[in-house]
Q: What sequence folds into this?
């Protein structure tokens, strides 16, 4: 009989409460992992078993980097050592999105937050893990839907532009027919009066112009096609002004010629990294609204201008229409809210989404009281991915695998 | 000799009309818009005027009304690439107008030259 405290008694008691603790941990929905200073796994709960496909016995005592994506696995011991020496935190107390490695080798996204505990046995680190796979799937599905929606509004815009397009193609076709007829006359004359080098040159010059008009017709079709065809998002470094100008031309095809469109493009704008077709889509949507707003009004005018502030490229489209009434303002950017008989109410909703996907914004100054509306598209000079990549050498959520 | 006037804002169509009309040996005067044409003064009665309806600024139909208001109006041929509905709306109060629709048939122009 010992009245003194058995030195092993502590352990005994510890084991009992540890067992209780573990059974509690096993009821947790989130994955819980505890490691020691040497990155050895001490606790691996049931949720983790489901998440990673390992049984607890298979992992306890092993280095936690077996559960990490290769890039992290290699560096993890280094981080841990570095933290213990310098106290510099990479993740502790912060939490971030990282990738886990399933038993079958597949990598999957997890939201990881890490806390630290000082125990008699030394420091321990407790990780809480949430599997983001399902959320990621939803996100991807949403992106796909959004892409479809963007394409749909393009098609709706084109539908409305249908007769305008016919008109636009009419011009080069008309020119071609007239040129060909003119050349035909030159040939007729040559047959009667004999060939002269001058007559041949004249005919050739006309044929060259006819060719140019045919190219013009082709490029109209090409531009339309690039708007309609289904395609994934892309980022390219492009010059802003020509991009805007092109979209303005496209929108004005066959529109009411009485609307004066003033283009005030800022000089020396730096290139911007965007999805060019999407940004053109924004220009088309906002400009179409502006042109529709001034239609039938006195001295209808729209000013399209581009400029630069210290961190953004700005595109402003201002009209001298009636402006937007206060009570329309609240749901202006909501999908399927339209003040028009034939509108789908998608133009602004899509445009704002596109601007935001680029890390930018679509803003409105509603005007009114004699002033028209003004919409401003603001795009960051550096795209969000780029700045993120440079501001943090380690961007766990964006690791590439297999490259 | 009579002059053929062409009022057309599209560069390609305008240039092609100039080539064709010149090929027939006529004198051509071409204008980008209605204002430029009217600034150039009143055309003599035996001139022929080809005018596009969808002009920027003063529309083609206004130019036609202006010409019809002359003591002896010259011959006018309207050209348009618009849909029938748009054209009818533009020409509601201009009956008996000769109208050619784009794309122009190759032989459409020559009878007027
Ligand atoms: N420049 C503007 N001036 C006045 N009202 C505007 C202007 N731009 C948009 N609006 C109002 O906002 C509404 C929503 O615009 P939005 O572009 O989202 O849809 P829509 O133009 O009705 O349809 P669509 O999907 O064909 O673009 C418009 O119906 C109109 O009432
Ligand atoms: Mg719209």
A:
């Amino acid at each position: 009989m010992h009245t003194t405290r058995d030195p092993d008694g502590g352990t005994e008691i510890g084991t009992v409460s540890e067992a209780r603790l573990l059974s509690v941990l096993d009821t947790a929905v989130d994955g819980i992992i505890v490691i020691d200073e040497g990155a050895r796994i001490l606790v691996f709960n049931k949720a983790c078993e489901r998440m990673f496909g390992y049984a607890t016995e298979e992992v306890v005592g092993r280095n936690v980097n077996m559960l990490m994506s290769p890039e992290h696995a290699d560096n993890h011991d280094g981080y841990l050592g570095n933290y213990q020496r310098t106290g510099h935190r990479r993740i502790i107390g912060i939490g971030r999105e990282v990738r886990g490695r399933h038993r079958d080798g597949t990598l999957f996204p997890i939201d990881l937050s890490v806390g630290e505990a000082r125990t008699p046995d030394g420091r321990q680190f407790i990780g809480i893990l949430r599997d983001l796979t399902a959320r990621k799937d939803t996100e991807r599905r949403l992106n796909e839907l959004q892409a479809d929606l963007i394409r749909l509004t393009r098609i709706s815009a084109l539908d409305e532009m249908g007769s305008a397009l016919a008109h636009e193609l009419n011009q080069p076709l008309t020119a071609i027919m007239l040129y060909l007829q003119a050349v035909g006359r030159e040939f007729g004359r040559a047959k009667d009066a004999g060939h002269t080098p001058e007559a041949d040159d004249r005919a050739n010059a006309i044929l060259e112009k006819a060719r140019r008009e045919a190219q013009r017709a082709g490029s109209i079709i090409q531009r339309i096609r690039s708007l309609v065809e289904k395609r994934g998002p892309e980022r390219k470094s492009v010059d802003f002004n020509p991009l805007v100008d092109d979209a303005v031309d496209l929108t004005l095809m066959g529109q009411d010629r009485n609307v004066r469109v003033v283009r005030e493009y800022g000089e020396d704008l730096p290139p911007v990294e965007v999805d060019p077709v999407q940004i053109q889509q924004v220009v088309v949507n906002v400009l179409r609204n502006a042109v529709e707003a001034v239609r039938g009004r006195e001295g209808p005018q729209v000013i399209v201008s581009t400029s630069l502030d210290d961190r953004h490229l700005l595109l402003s489209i201002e009209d001298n229409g009636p402006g937007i009434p206060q009570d329309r303002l609240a749901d202006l950017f909501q999908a399927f809210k339209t003040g028009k008989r034939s509108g789908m109410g998608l133009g602004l909703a899509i445009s704002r989404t596109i601007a935001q996907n680029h890390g930018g914004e679509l803003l409105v100054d509603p005007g009114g009281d004699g002033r028209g509306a003004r919409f401003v598209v603001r795009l960051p000079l550096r795209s969000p991915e780029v700045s993120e990549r440079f501001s943090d050498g380690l961007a766990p959520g964006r690791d590439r695998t297999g490259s | 000799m009579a002059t053929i006037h062409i009022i057309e804002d599209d560069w390609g169509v305008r240039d092609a009309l100039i080539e064709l009309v010149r090929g027939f040996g006529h004198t051509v005067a071409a204008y980008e818009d209605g204002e430029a044409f009217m600034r150039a003064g009143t055309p003599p009665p035996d001139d022929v005027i080809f005018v596009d309806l969808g002009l920027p600024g003063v529309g083609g139909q206004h130019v036609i009304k202006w010409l019809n208001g002359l003591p002896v109006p010259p011959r006018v041929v309207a050209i348009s690439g618009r849909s029938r509905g748009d054209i009818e709306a533009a020409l509601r109060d201009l009956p008996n107008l000769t109208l050619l629709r784009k794309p122009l048939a190759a032989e459409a122009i020559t009878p007027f030259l």
About this structure: The two ends of chain B are 12 Å apart (CA to CA).
